[in-house]
Design brief:
2 domains, eight-stranded mixed β-sheet, Vcp-like ATPase, Chain A, domain 2, homotetramer, alpha/beta, Rossmann fold, 15 strands
């Protein structure tokens, strides 16, 4: 049974040139810089419907994927990028039913991906010290409809003290080495730890501390993504690319 | 409650230098090229336990993650790599409860990742023409315990004819352009399509065909992963890296 | 003996934050967006002198290197980048005394590098069809003082007909495959050919034609350059990088 | 006038699949793993000649370029790679007539490139502490015919004390920061300094020291090279690539 667009649904409105907008389904005109689209015409029509604008261009009413939401997130901090998020999910073994801990929450990009992947039977506990970031992340999670499986906590109040038998921990803050003993305590035996860091100095410092603790199978990686222009007769990479987001460290807790 | 290792459990046995072995928990000695480990000592102990070998080196008894399983897969074909799998899962919006279609199955690396992510409430329908590949993929899925949500089909018998309202389609075969109309028919409106291809010529050909069909928001990307040596005093990338696995194409079905 | 800055000398004026300007030594104030520098104070002083501005910031009076000139070139076309130029010089075996042929001239970036490397005893013959580009390249070469070893020709008039026993040929135009027989004729036996192309389709077409001709040891490569921020306490790559300039093809003429 | 192959000439013998061998022209059979070639047949024939083997395969008699020599160098140390050498030559502004200083010599790869580029009117002064490396570098330079412009010195005896007004300095040793004051003293005002380092820790340490000295316009870069398979119908990058050689630092001396 085809699902149709209902009033209040979030729509990813995508133009022919690939510009995208996150809009609510309602009886209202939506103005891009090139054309005007009557969103009311979409109501009751199936997802994926092509809509003609007043000036004759087209846009497409797509149901937003998690990736779409990540690209449209309200941001108050640098977010973790999809190229990194995909790999993090895999290395942390995230899946339905898992209980995951992250610190800090930031704008909530990784948080949403974790919450999406653990499903309704899983849980994501996310620590942050900045009230302001937490509020933005909460509002982002609400919009995507993932609040039911997220627990927000304040890292200034406690350092994972009440957590135990956690399936995976991810640290995204300036001095993750300070939280390594607490992360170790919270994790299940053998469970994966992930860390994101922008500078080589932080990576060195973190590796030094990891060596002092019962962690093993430590890896440091960097991911690159390269976009291509999609003209089949003139296939070539884009002129510019992201040169750096961060280094990723992964490790596993062991019981000495 | 800490879970303990039981007879018959699959263990990722990891040495201090990072060599890993997939073994079954049983009363038996396991020989690496450097030491010998009495696996029987692990029974009844928690996951993550460190085990001393006869010659005094250590190994760690880790519960295998999906990523570990992917690295240890029985292979009869070139497999899709974790760097690509993580991004594919994100772009195809895979998560608990989704119904996904892939063709071809190959050794089943992406299949396992899809099956892991859709969870017990989801489904992966995987098409293949080589009986031999299908058998290997089936045995790989069985070992990881994901068979319950996978349906194996033969692409030589039918081309997605019975599929409809599919949440995402992934094509990993030499001539994906031939399956684009069938993929379009099977997909939900607005739903994502993914394709992996090794050569630029295949990318051009696929892009040409995508342009003829009601697909939009087409992207071509390439992902790189770079591993670092983990000595904190001598941090540096590894000397060698994987130079190419494949180009990824993503697109979205629309309703004209 | 230290050389000093004389009136009329070209100076690379570099600020503390790394902004650079190509200016002539003369009694005149030079205005950056942050400060004002009295260039007259540099006359008679050695190269490398630090100059204090009116507002107390510093700039440095550097003798422009070839690389500096390339970055400051007057451009009417996309230029070949230093990362590619360095490798081209090496693969084409450019050095003092060599006779090199290139087509097209464009803005003259590679031309200047070739002319610089062959020295006063060498020669660069450069073909172009656009009068306008040729004029810009000529004025660029004049400014750098390399005109004595450059011969400008019009590819619309003849196709390397008068050239023979050339040490190396470089082709930088849209349809290099059309010039391969002429390039072959012009080259010495065993001598290297280089080609720059932006798209994979052009690379495929060129490779197809090279296979039909007495060329051997064909290589296709791509070069990337990644810049780092230079804070020693926060060492990390720059956020953005150039994602693509072009593919390089190299081959060698043989005598069948 | 076509030059011909004379007895004693060094030939790069290249097979159809791209295997290469550096051999001397003489009346002798040369055995590859696939065929046998009568080198005597090449004498008196022009460079670039194709030679048929006993089993019907072909090889090509190419005059070795500098790049060919670098790939065939006798190595006692890790050598600097062509991708880096090309860029180093450009950033150090190497060209005919320049006087360049390098430390350490190693196997002499960069040394040969520098000596080739400065031509007979230039000079390369190369410091090394290991007698054994120096001897290998000397024999490599002799074979390529570049000894006339090279001066070998022992860094254990003196630290550039007798050098002044040098056009460019390159440092390739473990602790380049110790030589920065000596390099500064040896350089011309405004002249470029280059440094190669494998680890990020060394880069940080060097940057720290550079900041203490009258050096400006400091850059840190990394270069990647990616080779493609040359089948025009199946164009794609090679499966494996070099992941890391070293980080390059460039800076310029100023006069405070």
């Amino acid at each position: 049974m085809q699902e149709t667009i209902k009033p209040g649904d979030l729509i990813l409105l995508a133009t022919e040139e690939g510009k995208t907008y996150l809009v609510y389904a309602e009886k209202k005109a939506f103005q891009t810089h090139k054309d005007s689209f009557d969103l009311g015409l979409l109501l009751g029509h199936p997802w994926g419907t092509r809509l003609k604008g007043q000036k004759g261009t087209y846009c497409f009413a797509l149901r937003p994927t998690l990736h779409d939401h990540l690209m449209k997130l309200k941001r108050v901090t640098q977010i973790i990028y999809p190229k990194d998020i995909g790999y993090i999910l895999l290395k942390l073994d995230i899946g339905p039913g898992k209980v995951v801990l992250e610190c800090g929450t930031g704008s909530g990009a990784l948080l949403l991906a974790l919450a999406h992947s653990v499903g309704p039977s899983g849980k994501v506990i996310t620590y942050e010290k900045e009230k302001r970031f937490q509020e933005v992340a909460l509002s982002n999670a609400k919009r995507v409809g993932l609040l039911d499986r997220i627990v927000f906590k304040d890292i200034a109040v406690n350092t994972f003290e009440e957590e135990e038998e956690i399936d995976a921990v991810f640290l995204d803050l300036k001095t993750p080495w300070e939280l390594l003993p607490a992360a170790w305590k919270a994790l299940k035996g053998g469970a994966p730890l992930g860390i994101l860091l922008p500078t080589t100095n932080q990576v060195s410092e973190t590796l030094k501390q990891l060596q002092q603790l019962p962690f093993t199978q430590t890896e440091v990686v960097e991911l690159f993504i390269r976009f291509y222009k999609t003209n089949p007769q003139r296939l070539r990479p884009e002129d510019r690319m992201v040169g750096h987001t961060g280094f990723l460290i992964f490790s596993r807790k062991y019981l000495p």
